[in-house]
Write a structure and sequence with these properties.
four-stranded antiparallel beta sheet, 4 strands, 118 residues, Pantoate--beta-alanine Ligase, Chain: A,domain 2, rod-shaped
Length: 118
């Protein structure tokens, strides 16, 4: 190196490096967004748990009637229907809605005359 000269990057090299960093950042943001959107929310997990609890309570109490239950502005509609042709089998379905939008659904097929329903 000659005295008085500096070794530096050209403007073109700096722009290319910034462009590569920008592309990596955009890809990482896209991946992060897909992961966040695909994971179940806390509310969905809470709805699944409450729906399962409603079904288990119906089994324990042998309550085979349709019901509507409201918990924290979420409306749970329990419907009990005969399953196919067997009079001993029932399908208990619970759907959860909030502000008219369905946010969860759960169902279970149970034997009506079960002695160990708990």
């Amino acid at each position: 190196m000659k005295p008085g000269t500096l070794k530096a990057s050209t403007l073109l090299e700096v722009i290319i490096a910034m462009l590569i960093i920008l592309i990596v950042f955009v890809l990482a943001t896209g991946i992060f967004t897909k992961v966040i959107v695909s994971s179940p929310s806390v509310k969905q997990q809470q709805v699944r748990s409450l729906s399962s609890g409603i079904i288990q309570e119906s089994l324990y109490q042998r309550n085979w009637t349709d019901e509507t239950i409201e918990i924290d502005r979420i409306v749970f509609r329990k419907t009990v229907l005969p399953y196919i042709d067997d009079p001993e089998l029932l399908q208990i379905s619970v759907s959860a809605t909030e502000d008219g939008k369905e946010i969860g659904k759960s169902r279970q097929i149970v034997r009506k005359g079960r002695e160990d329903a708990k």
